[in-house]
Specification:
- With 470 residues, this protein is α+β, with helices and mostly antiparallel strands.
- The chain is built from eight helices and 30 strands.
- The protein has a six-stranded mixed β-sheet with strand order 26-25-27-30-28-29.
- Strand 21 and strand 22 (243-251) form a beta hairpin.
- Helix 3 (316-331) packs across helix 8 (450-468) and helix 5 runs antiparallel to helix 8.
- 40% of the residues are buried.
Length: 470
């Protein structure tokens, strides 16, 4: 069979080093093309950036034989095979495939003076299937007309390019979060006894550039230390033709297996923080497009979830609701804003329900209000604000945080990137505010006063209005 002429990019241009987040694999990284190992220079590394496998562009040019055109001034590279052209720009997630704009999971980056690009995106656009062995740090590339299967453990010979790739599996805060590169997967969830366990099947899926380790049989486990009601979370490629990933959550000391599930923006979230006294889902009131901005205010915790307990033995949920209602009163007077509260009384909508509410409303801004605690360090103090990755969320966080610190005079603990569900799973600019420390006697006293709450509420509203340009 005629050997397919394949992939990628260009000789190395010596550019300034740009800082990025990621972990580089050791020099033992390997790339296989149709079962044959490519000869790589000693200094070439397969790199992980934001859980995406990246490959140096020099490998594309020297080994995969695609035509490459580099525009140094525009920091743009064009990759061509026959009539197929891909245009990528350094540090930009927007790419062009022919005349169509697409969005990448991770932008091309410059790392150690080397341009690296997302191997899966480029390869699949050029007709190759891609598999990543995270344990051994090996990339397998296969041409669409290649009859042999790679030595990756998948011997089905089926075309995986049409399947959804599972790219991340995380268990935190009694929540299972599964990230995928598609949104059409309909999970099949069942509960089994002896032992009690939750079984999550994902039809039409295979493992992609999975951040978690896989053994040779495509199995793995998560660390669930610190979760007494969960004994194990394991995952595997349960079926190979067609693909199906299975995740099993094995439980301890439960009367009934209760959970809440949600699929948003390519993420499956299963929340085990469900109890018999949880309230019904927050109803979504349709918002007519009036040209006004939709703002969602989320007083944290509530109902069966008290939050942290203050130094005077008061629950966080009471403080954040009082402050949230003051924010509500101010925003209801804004003619250019439609306000929605996740709760306005002592109820407990789950975090998943709060996220779902904001996303279904297509809100412009989401603000979650909390009080901080450090019981082991009662002198800890200050205001800190969290966002998750999106630059728009960071901008919102900076604006509100600056106003809060100025209004309250608490220590500036700065704006931070935090992996918290209500700001991670929401799709609009979203922030979580830790107003001050309820474990600190002075700050708790101040935060409980009507005067300080009024100042905090005004600062939050002013920050929201500034960000929205109102």
């Amino acid at each position: 069979m005629k050997k397919i002429i394949v992939l990628m990019f260009m000789s190395l241009f010596f550019l300034f080093l740009f800082p990025i987040q990621g972990n580089a694999a050791a020099n033992t990284s390997k790339i296989f093309l149709n079962g044959e190992q490519l000869s790589l220079p000693n200094d070439v590394q397969v790199t992980i950036v934001n859980k995406n496998v990246m490959i140096p562009i020099r490998v594309v040019a020297e080994n995969l034989k695609f035509d490459v055109d580099w525009n140094q001034q525009a920091r743009q590279v064009k990759i061509q095979q026959n009539e197929k052209v891909i245009s990528l720009t350094v540090d930009q997630k927007q790419a062009m495939v022919a005349d169509k704009q697409v969005t990448l999971n991770t932008a091309p980056q410059i790392l150690n003076k080397t341009l690296v690009v997302p191997i899966r995106f480029v390869s699949e656009q050029m007709g190759l299937s891609v598999k990543w062995n995270n344990q051994e740090k090996i990339v397998y590339l296969t041409g669409s007309n290649n009859e042999s299967s790679e030595a990756s453990g998948d011997d089905s010979g089926s075309d995986t390019t049409s399947l959804t790739h599972v790219t991340d599996i995380v268990f935190a805060d009694n929540q299972l979060v599964v990230s995928m590169d598609g949104e059409q997967v309909q999970p099949v969830i069942s509960t089994l006894k002896n032992p009690d366990r939750l079984v999550v099947d994902l039809p039409g899926t295979v493992f992609g550039d999975l951040a978690q380790p896989l053994d040779q049989g495509f199995n793995g486990k998560l660390d669930v230390t610190g979760y007494p009601n969960v004994s194990e979370v394991r995952y595997s490629l349960f079926k190979r033709d067609p693909g199906q990933v299975r995740i099993v959550v094995e439980l301890n000391n439960v009367k009934d297996v209760q959970f809440d599930q949600n699929v948003i923006a390519g993420k499956l979230l299963i929340d085990l923080n469900v109890s018999g006294d949880s309230v019904p889902p927050v109803p979504v009131t349709p918002v007519i497009d009036t040209g006004r901005k939709v703002v969602v205010i989320d007083p944290g915790h509530g109902g069966s979830d008290p939050g942290t307990i203050s130094i005077t033995n008061k629950p966080e949920k009471e403080y954040v609701l009082a402050l949230g209602l003051k924010v509500q009163a101010l925003l209801l007077n804004e003619p250019d804003i439609d306000l929605v509260m996740t709760r306005d009384s002592d109820t407990y909508p789950t975090r998943s329900e709060r996220v779902k509410l904001a996303n279904e409303l297509n809100a412009d801004v989401f603000v979650s209000i909390h009080g901080n605690s450090a019981t082991s360090s009662p002198q800890a103090s200050g205001t800190e604000t969290f966002y998750y990755q999106r630059s728009s969320s960071k901008d919102l966080a900076n604006i509100i945080h600056e106003r809060l610190v100025k209004a309250l005079g608490f220590k500036d603990r700065r704006v931070k990137n935090g992996n918290l569900q209500v700001i991670r799973e929401t799709t609009m600019p979203a922030v979580l505010l830790e107003i001050g420390f309820l474990s600190n006697a002075a700050e708790e006293k101040a935060m409980s006063s009507e005067e300080v709450q009024a100042k905090a509420a005004q600062a939050i509203v002013d920050g929201i209005k500034e960000y929205l340009g109102i």
